[in-house]
Design brief:
Layout: E1 4-7, H1 13-22, E2 27-30, H2 38-42, E3 46-47, H3 51-56, E4 60-63, H4 68-76, E5 90-93, H5 99-111, E6 115-118, E7 121-122, H6 125-130, E8 133-137, H7 141-146, H8 148-154, E9 155-160, H9 166-194, H10 199-208, H11 214-225, H12 234-251, H13 256-273, H14 281-290
Parallel strand pairs: 1-2, 1-4, 2-3, 4-5, 5-6, 8-9
Antiparallel strand pairs: 7-8
Helix pairs in contact: 9-12, 9-13, 9-14, 10-11, 12-13, 13-14
The structure holds NADP nicotinamide-adenine-dinucleotide phosphate.
Length: 291
């Protein structure tokens, strides 16, 4: 049986690592803030003191961090992945980063004798907890097939998009849609409110319409109560829309709705909503329209 390593135990990483642990695998864990390992250690995970130790003691290393900067630090800094024995090991990066950075990291890992796969995910904390994520993979298909049992624990399906970086491109496509839908729902709710419609009636209308979605249902209580505790932090949505813009520029294409959503999320972040859930874009739109 492979020994599994997990680096990054935030909103997503912790429940994902927990699912592997509860499926009976040995899981070595490391997180920059050590206290986040507690729940996993109580269930039998082995807490290690650095990313280097995780790689040295594991065969397959999953990484689930905020962004490229965090992945870069975990790879390059003292006691990082590259100080370990990476030869023969497989690093599976599930963080959302740009396709270019995925290729860069794959090159670095392969120069050190290891293998890199990109496997970002679609679905939020609820799906991470229930093992219902959709995993978007890029990299060697045979290795990915071999590791399918792990992906089957973490998600309800895996889609292979091609070589390393293609999983990340797919992730940017789906999160661009998420950002646009987030702004669309917020505008519909704020417009309905301004037009004097009862909020409960409007929530019921969307729920019963063709525009109902798992996304809307997951965020409905937030809109109802106007409280936005984070499942997917708004600042991560801003990061992803920024990556979409960069990727679109490189491809020489223009994405009008994604650009508008990007600007709205940037402004929400500047106005103090960075650590709220991405659905707090509703508050940003509401503040603007009220002014
Ligand atoms: P999160 O809760 O903010 O966790 C971020 C993780 O990255 C934490 O383990 C954090 O460590 C670590 N980290 C951040 N900067 C670091 C650095 N410089 N060095 C080392 N570690 C660092 O984020 P999340 O919601 O789990 O998201 C993780 C990834 O999944 C992101 O790429 C996000 O875009 C993507 N994603 C999120 C969702 C969602 O709904 N939340 C859904 C799909 C995809 P500390 O604990 O020490 O801060």
């Amino acid at each position: 049986m492979h020994k599994l390593g997990w680096i990054g135990l935030g909103h997503m990483g912790a429940p994902m690592a927990m699912n592997l642990l509860q499926a009976g695998y040995e899981v070595n864990v490391y997180n920059r803030s050590h206290e986040k390992t507690r729940g996993l250690v109580e269930k039998g995970a082995k807490q290690l003191n650095s990313s280097k130790e995780v790689v040295d003691q594991s065969d397959i290393i999953f990484i689930m961090l905020s962004d490229s900067n965090a992945v870069n630090n975990v790879l390059m800094l003292e006691n990082g992945v590259l100080e370990a024995q990476t030869a023969g090991k497989v690093v599976i990066n599930m963080s959302t980063i740009s396709p270019e950075d995925a290729l860069k990291f794959a090159g670095i890992i392969s120069e050190n004798g290891g293998q890199y796969l990109d496997a970002p995910v679609s679905g939020s904390v609820g799906a991470a907890m229930s093992g219902q994520l959709v995993i978007l993979t890029g990299g060697d298909i045979q290795t990915l097939e071999e590791y399918k049992p792990y992906f089957d624990i973490l998600g309800k399906s895996s889609i292979h998009f091609g070589t390393v970086g293609k999983g990340s491109s797919a992730k940017l496509a789906i999160n661009m849609l998420l950002g646009i839908m987030g702004q669309g729902i917020a505008e519909a709710l704020v417009f309905a409110d301004k037009a004097g419609l009862d909020k409960e009636d409007v929530l019921a209308l969307i729920s019963q319409s063709g525009m109902n979605s798992p996304l809307f249902q997951a965020k409905k209580e937030m809109y109802r109560n106007e409280e936005f505790p984070s499942a997917f932090m708004l600042e991560l949505m801003t990061k992803d829309l920024g990556l979409v813009k960069e990727a679109a520029d490189l491809l020489g294409t223009t994405l009008p709705l994604a650009e508008v959503a990007n600007e709205t999320f940037i402004s929400a972040e500047k106005n103090g909503k960075a650590k709220l859930d991405m659905a707090a874009i509703y508050l940003e739109i509401k503040d603007r329209i009220t002014k």
